[in-house]
Amino acid sequence: MNLNTTLRLLITADWPAQDPACEWALLNAQGNTLQLGRSEPRHWPAAEACEVVLSAEQCLLLKVQLPKGARSRPAEVIAYALEDQLIGEADGEHFVVGAEGAATADSTAPTPVWVIARTRLKTLLAALTALERRPLRVISELQLARVQAGGWSVCLHSDNATGFARLGSEEGFAFDLADIRQPPLELRLALRAAQQDGGVPLFIDVYSARSKDEAFDSETALAWQSDLTVPIRPAGEYVWRDQSSQDARNLLSGEFAPPRAANSGWGSFKPAMWLGLVVLVAYCLFSFGEWLWLDHQSERLRQQMTESFRAAYPQAQTIVDPPLQMQRLNDQLRRARGQVGSTDFLPLLAAATETLGAQGRLRSLSYEDGRLELTLLLADSAAAERAQKTLTSRGLAATLRDTRPASGGVEAVFALRGTP
Q1: Which residues contact 417 (CB under 8 A, 6 or more apart)?
Q2: How many CA atoms does the CB half-sphere of 307 hold within 13 Å?
Q3: What is the model's pLDDT at position 268?
Q4: What pLDDT score was predicted for residue 32?
Q5: For the domain with range 146-237, which CATH number is right: 1.10.10, 3.30.420, 3.40.50, 2.40.50?
């Protein structure tokens, strides 16, 4: 489906229970704004797709040490790693792993993890689905702020009492601001942690929305700069609609992943799919024909073996497995003349000794009813598997029955029989 228009909604923590209205922007395929507004759902414009921007305080962005490949690990593993940083139970949270950190020589760099209340996300999606506005993406407002290389960004909302800070691509936090003339406590703590890690920003850009009462002016910037000892740069007005969300992390994953539209994204693959289907059909026909030919050859060889067996042993009444029966009858004739058969103790022992050579040290040996059982001391389990393969390649039916730890390596128990 060609998504020509997208309705982007700014959903606050009050929506929909306390305030059914929200700010919205209608965008075209190029991301340009077509319409703007703030209204209840019945006044939202029609659009092919829907995208939700959650106000910053609804998401928690944490960093944790996770091994490589954390994205494929179960939620329980991530929850266990984060339990010390969560206030409530981990079962009530939805986790989305961000970009994995680069591994160093002795550790793994911290990996960002987005955390949102599972009940909040379920309520939000249920309400939007009922309005036939099921979103394809849900992102955090944290990732809408512009951030310059070497610096941090702070965005103040229109009430000048709340805002959020973005410290990197996937690093930031929301805060409450009691007095605009003083920087938030969370920002002070973040700077203190950055000083310990050697990552103090070169500057902090502050974006503020228009306010009737107070604005973040040059005098306020100097007060912040004196308190934080980091250059503060007023960066103009913060307007959430003007920020690109192309690289923002989609919080709809796992159980909350949006359903894939029928035939979505398959159009460009149709030629390759048809070619693959033709190749698959040709391969199946060739394989089936080859199987028929091999089955015919197998049946022909079996008839030849049966005829040879009847010629050699005309007294045999029933023929089930000509090679095996011939081997057993040959052994009977050899024993009747005082010779050993191929499944007797000495031939089996000679074949095993010749095959294994000095690969292991013999611990025990037993023989019963055509089966020779050897217990060898080998270096490890891998050596036992190699020994089994060697015995099999020499024409012996070798079974590795057991391996158990022993002083100097492992004890491997082999059961050997001769093969026709």
Answers
A1: 343, 348, 370, 371, 372, 396, 397
A2: 6
A3: 58
A4: 87
A5: 3.30.420
